[in-house]
Amino acid sequence: MLANQTAIVTGASRGIGRAIALELAAKGANIVINYAGNQAKAEEVVAQVKELGSEAFAYQADVANSDDVQAMMKETISRFGSIDILVNNAGITKDNLLMRMKEQDWDDVIDTNLKGVFLCAKAVSRQMMKQRSGRIINVASVVGVLGNPGQANYVAAKAGVIGLTKSLAREFASRNVLVNAIAPGFISTDMTDELDSTAKEALLTQIPLGKLGEPEHVANVVRFLASDDAAYMTGQTIHIDGGMVMP
Ligand code: NAD
């Protein structure tokens, strides 16, 4: 299904990014496992990709750093020859109520979660336009649509990702570069493990399906967006949230 294609997945050493990398690899894509700091975990994912019969390498790059990002794209083209799929998955949270939120926490979250998407999309855009094909899949969040107290920085970044997705979809459409976003609800990963049990119970009452999602639920939709089955879709945000948002 994705044979001979190359996918870069940012923040792929664990959680949702890891599940996406493995799903795309299972369908035949070569994968660049981008990671921020944990090389051992990233190399584990590389080994798992190879067990699935695809090629992979791990690449350390801060998605908020333009030089890092450009070097990663250059290395990808030199090793695999193309960039067909970019999954902008890397993300962080630094939660606090607005009155207590430090300016640095605002900047850090916007830099990784929004500027990172801008830098990575910009860095692949020339190559994808030259190829006259490409898929950019941005990981937003349900809270980017609903808002969430205590997450002003994260919500602003994720809402920005949804707008950025629409803008890039319009810019790149004539070159057959399709740009879509996904908006996961609450997915069971290290990020949501940080929530205390009271917060988790309160959350479950807001999810019609009554349970947290799994990283594989998200990965399956990314695989669809990366495939020929989604060839007539661009600028969309698909919700994977157990029914939390029904637009
Ligand atoms: P996670 O914390 O397990 O994984 C995030 C990954 O991003 C980590 O591997 C981390 O090292 C990497 N990362 C962080 N900053 C980076 C940087 N500057 N450069 C490169 N990599 C960096 O979280 P997750 O739950 O797997 O989240 C993945 C994505 O899904 C994030 O964008 C997150 O905002 C989004 N999301 C998660 C949920 C959820 O419920 N877990 C819901 C909605 C959206």
UniProtKB/TrEMBL annotation:
Pathway: Lipid metabolism; fatty acid biosynthesis. Pfam families: adh_short_C2. It is an enzyme of class 1 (oxidoreductase). Its EC number is 1.1.1.100. InterPro entries: 3oxo_ACP_reduc, KR_dom, NAD(P)-bd_dom_sf, Sc_DH/Rdtase_CS, SDR, SDR_fam. Keywords: Fatty acid biosynthesis, Fatty acid metabolism, Lipid biosynthesis, Lipid metabolism, NADP, Oxidoreductase. Homotetramer. Catalyzes the NADPH-dependent reduction of beta-ketoacyl-ACP substrates to beta-hydroxyacyl-ACP products, the first reductive step in the elongation cycle of fatty acid biosynthesis. Belongs to the short-chain dehydrogenases/reductases (SDR) family. NCBIfam families: 3oxo_ACP_reduc, PRK05653.1-1, PRK05653.1-5, PRK07231.1, PRK12826.1-2. This is 3-oxoacyl-[acyl-carrier-protein] reductase.
